[in-house]
User: Which sequence fits this backbone?
């Protein structure tokens, strides 16, 4: 008896639950849904579905006439070999193989520094002025020797005139000539010492003029006013300014993707993009990481570039085979999602077939549906192709030209989804 009562109670509970579920289902079916939007010919335009990667964000159905007027072109998704553009920071440098190291022939105290790093200089231009007290003594002795030469010359001319008149003997003339020669030897020796100091014998102030041996740019400067410098120590490094180079670090992961002879693009804020050719590498150790330093010669100089200027170096990584690729012109962004428009796999039987990379040539009144699929991109080739990480069927046709028009139409419909107000496809316009 008790068992029969339990069975009856269980049946009643099941019936009540069924009644509640049925009521919920009826209620949901009465909830108003967003109205589908239409073209002027009342054909469905948009049907929102999922927005996950590789899923349908929305679709647009166009008539043959609309396809033709929009100038859409199509291609097929296929495997391709795609490079990847790499950006690395770089710096403008001078030619280190044509540098001049400037030092002082004698020690002294720095009185003046007349140039700064990066400045262009001419051959013979004074770079700095030093004071050397030993030079003062040498200049004084050289001046005295020069006076003795002048006096000995006068005495020789006088004795020669007296000898011709028979007033003096030939021995006296030879002695006077010998005095002149000794004075000349002394002066020439002192004058050579002055030249070693860089002095031209025009003063007695002990100043040493440091001059540039070539035309170029000051690449490095190692002195300031008041310093005491020693001979043989580099004071300036000057490099030829007629050729500029670019130096940039190559991380270990990219070392196999770049080599001598490769062309790179160089961009800066002060000059139009230029090309450079990699000529060589050196190594650099920074902590535990080891980098290659690439040196690339600018194919064409530009007045807007100068040594130590920061630039951006672009180069294309070696091509890699990818399974799925599309033209980059097909890529659009809707609601912060990357999409491409593919031709629906089940078009209307009267829809016109689409030919690869050619304008559609619709005939009749058929319609074609374009699905906006969310995709994930991989490599982007500078030649105009993009890798799809989202697996799609080979041969799937997509809109390669004019997809921005479908994007504009779909964005309008997304904005109007809740109102249900019909919208027309935007009329063909110039591509932004």
Assistant:
């Amino acid at each position: 008896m008790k068992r029969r009562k339990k069975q009856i109670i269980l049946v009643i509970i099941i019936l009540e639950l069924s009644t509640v579920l049925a009521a919920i289902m009826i209620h949901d079916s009465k909830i108003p849904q967003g109205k589908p939007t239409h073209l002027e010919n009342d054909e469905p335009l948009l049907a929102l579905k999922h927005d996950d990667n590789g899923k349908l964000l929305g679709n647009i159905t166009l008539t043959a006439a609309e396809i033709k007027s929009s100038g859409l072109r199509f291609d097929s998704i296929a495997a391709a070999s795609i490079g990847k553009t790499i950006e690395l920071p770089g710096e403008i440098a001078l030619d280190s193989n044509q540098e001049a190291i400037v030092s002082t022939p004698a020690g002294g105290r720095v009185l003046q520094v007349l140039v700064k790093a990066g400045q262009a200089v001419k051959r013979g231009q004074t770079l700095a002025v030093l004071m050397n007290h030993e030079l003062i003594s040498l200049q004084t002795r050289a001046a005295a020797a020069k006076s003795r030469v002048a006096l000995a010359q006068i005495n020789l001319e006088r004795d020669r005139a007296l000898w011709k008149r028979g007033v003096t003997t030939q021995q006296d003339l030879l002695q006077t000539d010998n005095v002149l020669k000794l004075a000349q030897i002394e002066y020439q020796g002192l004058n050579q010492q002055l030249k070693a100091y860089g002095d031209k014998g025009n003063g007695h102030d002990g100043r040493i003029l440091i001059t540039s041996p070539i035309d170029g740019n000051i690449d490095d400067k190692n002195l300031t006013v008041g310093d005491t410098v020693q001979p043989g120590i580099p004071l300036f490094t000057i490099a030829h300014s007629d050729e500029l180079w670019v130096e940039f670090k190559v991380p270990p992961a990219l070392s196999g993707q770049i080599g001598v002879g490769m062309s790179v693009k160089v961009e800066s804020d002060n000059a139009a993009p230029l090309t450079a050719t990699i000529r060589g590498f050196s190594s650099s150790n920074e902590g535990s990481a080891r980098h290659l330093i690439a040196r690339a010669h600018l194919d064409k100089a530009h007045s807007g570039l100068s040594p130590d200027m920061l630039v951006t170096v672009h180069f294309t990584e070696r091509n890699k085979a990818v399974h799925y690729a599309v033209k980059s012109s097909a890529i659009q962004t809707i609601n912060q999602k990357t999409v491409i428009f593919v031709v629906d796999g089940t078009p209307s039987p009267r829809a016109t077939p689409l030919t690869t990379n050619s304008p559609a040539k619709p005939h009749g009144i058929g319609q074609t549906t374009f699905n906006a699929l969310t995709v994930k991109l991989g490599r982007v080739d500078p030649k105009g192709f993009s890798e799809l990480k989202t697996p799609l069927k080979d041969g799937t046709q997509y809109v390669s030209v004019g997809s921005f028009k479908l994007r504009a139409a779909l964005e309008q419909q997304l904005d109007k989804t809740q109102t249900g107000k019909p919208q027309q496809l935007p009329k063909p316009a110039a591509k932004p």
User: Anything to note?
Assistant: Helices lie at 2-29, 64-70, 133-164, 170-196, 403-416.
